[in-house]
Design goal:
This protein is an alpha+beta fold and 165 residues long. The protein has two helices and eight strands; from the N terminus they run H-H-E-E-E-E-E-E-E-E. 35% of the residues lie in helices and 32% in strands. The strands form two sheets. The chain has a four-stranded antiparallel β-sheet with strand order 1-8-5-6, with helices on one face. Helix 1 packs antiparallel against helix 2.
């Protein structure tokens, strides 16, 4: 995986934290100058912490998805046999999306589908794998993929990998 998604997460966090720190620092200074080095240092630490936590969560989800897909033996690429519904965010902040698979094989099969969750800029926010078992020959079946964590803003979903086995 490239580091492309790491920087925007930290940049968004940096904007929020630095704006807050600047406001807090300006309010606390009698001479209305920029925040002190200590406040700036705390803001930078907070940005690094937020960015690191988001990056770690995405890395963990990606590793988990890769492990689940790696356990499948004799899987066939089935990305073209998968459609996703409209993502919906629940009251818990997690994003759910309907995953419909169509079995074009002549026997009952199972599917493992990796769903990627992206923000409006296309940055990866989360990924998960949903298994759809017992799909009859020439039939279809629907399951729900749920993000691993709370996602904010408008979330777009895409099929990362899909295996029929």
């Amino acid at each position: 995986m490239s580091g492309r998604w790491k920087r925007p997460v930290a940049s968004a966090a940096a904007t929020v934290v630095l704006a807050t720190a600047t406001a807090a620092g300006a309010a606390g200074c009698s001479n209305e100058k920029s925040p002190s080095g200590a406040v700036t240092s705390k803001a930078v630490s907070a940005v690094n912490s937020v960015g690191a936590k988001a990056t770690a969560a995405i890395a963990s989800a990606t590793a988990s998805a890769g492990q689940k897909l790696g356990e499948i033996k004799n899987g066939v690429d089935a990305k073209g046999e998968v459609t996703l519904g409209t993502p919906r965010t629940g009251s818990d902040g997690k994003t759910a999306v309907a995953v419909t698979v169509r079995n074009t094989a002549d026997s009952t099969k199972s599917f493992a589908v990796q769903v990627n969750y992206r923000d409006q800029q296309g940055n990866l926010q989360d990924t998960t794998v949903v298994t759809v078992s017992g799909v009859p020959a020439s039939g279809s079946k629907t399951a729900t993929a749920l993000s691993n964590r709370k996602l904010s803003g408008q979330v777009k979903t895409e099929v990362g990998t899909a295996l029929r086995y």
